[in-house]
Amino acid sequence: MPRCFAAYEAAEGRPPVGVVSCTGLGWTSYALEARRRGVLERRPLFTALGRRHVVGADGTTTSSDTVLRPQARADGRVHLIGYGASQSTVGADRAGRATAAALIRRLDRD
Q: What is the pLDDT of residues 15-43, one digit of tens each?
C-alpha cells in the first residue's frame, strides 16, 4: 500500500498529510541554496511591516524585500479552506465540516 493514500490514512485514524509530501518531489537546487542562505527560515509572525523590513514582537527588525504568508488567521471572520492538509480530498471534507460548524457558531453569537 502506498505511504500517502488518503483513504487508508483516514481509515486508520491518522491525520491527512499535505498533498506535496505525497508527490515524492524533492528539493530543487534553488530551494536548497535558499535554505542554506537562511532565507527560508520560518519565523514567528511579525507585528509590523516597514518599507524594507519586518518588526518582531520583541522589537527587533529584519531586513526583508519579500514576505511569504500563505494564511492569515488573525481575523476570526476569515476562514481559509483548501490550504495545507485541507487540500486533500479527505482533508477538504473534514476542513469543510469544521469550517461550516465554526461559521454557524460564530453567526449564532453575533
A: 766 666 666 667 788 888 988 998 877 77
Q: Side chain identity at 82, as an amino acid letter?
A: G
pLDDT at 82: 58
Domain contains 78: no
Buried b (16+ CB within 10 A) or exposed e, 76-102: eeeeeeeebbbebebbbebbeeeeeee
Position 58 in a domain: yes
Buried b (16+ CB within 10 A) or exposed e, 9-33: bbeeeeebbebeebeeeeeeeeeee
pTM recorded for the entire structure: 0.34
Q: Does residue 8 form part of some domain?
A: no
Range of the domain at 47: 43-69
56: in domain: yes
